[in-house]
Write a structure and sequence with these properties.
By secondary structure, the chain is mostly helical. Helices cover 75% and strands 0% of the residues. The longest helix is centred in the middle third of the chain and has 25 residues. The radius of gyration is 15 Å and the shape is globular.
Length: 116
């Protein structure tokens, strides 16, 4: 299976979820888009960086969603969405960029470097 860019999926889920909710006028439909992208991103985070990374990044994804609401009151809706999406993409990239022999010594949630 091809490696899906989880950073792009997560950022796209935040932007896309808001866009769907805004343009359809149906917030639950935006939530479905947000959750679907979050599920794909979580799967990729787990596959690329391990269970603990996936749990942490999923928590960050939910915090970005929740944090965009009060931030929107200060800077506006779209700037808020783009800000949290950018932050989420950066966090995802930072955690998942390491792969192969370059990260051979990196612990993955209590498991050895080989993931066993």
């Amino acid at each position: 299976m091809a490696k899906v860019p989880a950073a792009a999926v997560a950022a796209g889920g935040l932007v896309g979820g808001y866009a769907v909710a805004r343009w359809t006028g149906k917030r639950p439909l935006g939530g479905v888009a947000l959750a679907a992208a979050g599920g794909v991103a979580a799967y990729e985070w787990n596959r690329q960086a391990g269970r603990c990374a996936a749990i942490g990044l999923t928590a960050a994804y939910l915090a970005a969603f929740a944090g965009s609401h009060p931030l929107a009151k200060k800077i506006g809706a779209w700037p808020s969405v783009f800000a949290v999406a950018g932050g989420m993409a950066a966090a995802s990239w930072a955690v998942t960029r390491c792969s192969g022999s370059a990260c051979a010594g990196r612990e993955r949630c209590g498991r050895g470097a080989n993931g066993a």
